[in-house]
Amino acid sequence: MQLWLKLMRAPLSAKLGMAIVAVNVACVVFAPWLAPFGETEIVGQSWVPGFWGADVQGAPATWLGTDHLGRDVLTRLIFGARNSIVIALVTTILSFSLGITTGLLAAAMRGWVDQILSRTVDLMMGFPTLIFALMVLAVIGSSIPAVIGVIALLDATRVFRITRAVATDIAAQDYVEVARLRGEGMGWIMRREILPNAITPLAAEFGLRFCFVFLFVATLSFIGLGVQPPAADWGSMVKENSAAISFGILMPLFPAAAIALLTVAINLIIDWTGATAGGVHDDH
């Protein structure tokens, strides 16, 4: 009930963000039932505009038209939501699991453990993220597990930095020292003392990192190293239909708009939750 009341009191921007996220989640879960055609099914000629390609009954043959191969764009968008969002979510979860674990270890154990982990992260962050990913994927291949693993490893360095910074401040608190004096093990201190008090900033960071990973996956797909055809992905959809712009056909704008809308929606939710957690309330 309290959660429902909190959602009802959310500002309009946050409600709009939640609505957009809900639509995308529905596409992820129910893609085979929501899509009017198969993911790779060819339904007409190339780049047929939506709403103008009506059938004999007068109903539009395709809502958003067809792509460069004659596949339904709406169907590709729905299945693309599943591929793009699930890959980004799994990658973010993996990066946070690795980054939080190593960050807590560095903050709690300090000494040579902190030095080794921090210097390793500094070395990895010295390489431009995109260039590093391109080099690794060019060597090991651009399969989905490879993409997830490479991006998760790169993003874990950012998670490590913020986790270590937050956890270091918490580890200096009196209640953590009391736990050490009681003889509690390092694992217990990290799980029961440090991590619960670091949840709020890490939760906000999770949303931000998800947006970064989501856009990074779309970038890799756009340059041909992300999700491979014929699987649908919003980044690759922009790339595949980019030539349509030269003919005044707006087909590439649909997946581009989907990427932008989801990113903005998540940021609207993060802004609201961050303001609420910080004690700032805006009901307008």
Describe the structure.
- With 284 residues, this protein is mainly α.
- It has a domain at 82-276: MetI-like fold (Orthogonal Bundle).
- The chain contains ten helices and no strands.
- Helix 3 runs antiparallel to helix 4 (111-125), helix 3 (73-109) packs parallel to helix 6 and helix 8 (186-222) runs antiparallel to helix 10 (253-277).
- The radius of gyration is 23 Å and the shape is globular.
- It starts with a helix and ends in a 7-residue tail after the last helix.
- Residues 53-60 and 279-284 have low confidence and may be disordered.
Secondary structure layout plus pairing:
Layout: H1 2-8, H2 12-34, H3 73-109, H4 111-125, H5 129-140, H6 144-171, H7 174-181, H8 186-222, H9 234-240, H10 253-277
Helix pairs in contact: 2-3, 2-10, 3-4, 3-6, 3-8, 4-6, 5-6, 6-8, 7-8, 8-9, 8-10, 9-10
CATH top level of the domain at 82-276 is Mainly Alpha
Residue share in β-strands? under 5%
Instruction: Give Rg in angstroms.
Output: 23 Å
Structural class: mainly alpha
CATH superfamily of the domain at 82-276: MetI-like
Indicate the low-confidence ranges by residue numbers. Answer: 53-60, 279-284
The share of residues in helices is: over 70%
Q: Helical segment tally?
A: 10
How far apart, in Å, are the first and last alpha carbons? Answer: 21 Å
- Predict the CATH topology of the domain at 82-276: MetI-like fold
Q: What would the principal axes of the Cα set say about the shape?
A: globular
